[in-house]
Design brief:
6 helices, about 140 residues, mainly alpha, single chain
Length: about 140
Amino acid sequence: MRSRRFCFAIGLAVFIASARVNSLADDSGRADKLAAIQTAYKKAEDAYEKAVDRLDDADEKTSEELELKFAETQQEYFNAAVEIAKADAKSDVAIVALDWVLTIPQSHQMPTGLVAVEEVTKHHAANPKVGKIVSWVGNNVPPR
């Protein structure tokens, strides 16, 4: 019972953190917004990992619930980063945002991952900075 309350509290914290994605640093530049998104994502990821580490092996249902909630949270952060990239598609901030999204393998299994790949191919195909992205995407293609 205690671990479920802890998991609920962590889940709530992740949910609250993800709710702030769209309001992060509205008046600051795109690079500052991206940095804020990355920091918030890292905090949410750390909270998720701590919650999973505290679960007993018998708490499969709670583990699945946490995994689903974190996947939703990831999707929100990835969406926010891709929107930053779309705002000025050919900028350096755009390639940094797309790089961040696409070097997290879970993004490859989400709709945002496909949008990020499309943005890279449309606006950054000739950019030498895409090498890392190509490597990550090529080596982490989800199985069919």
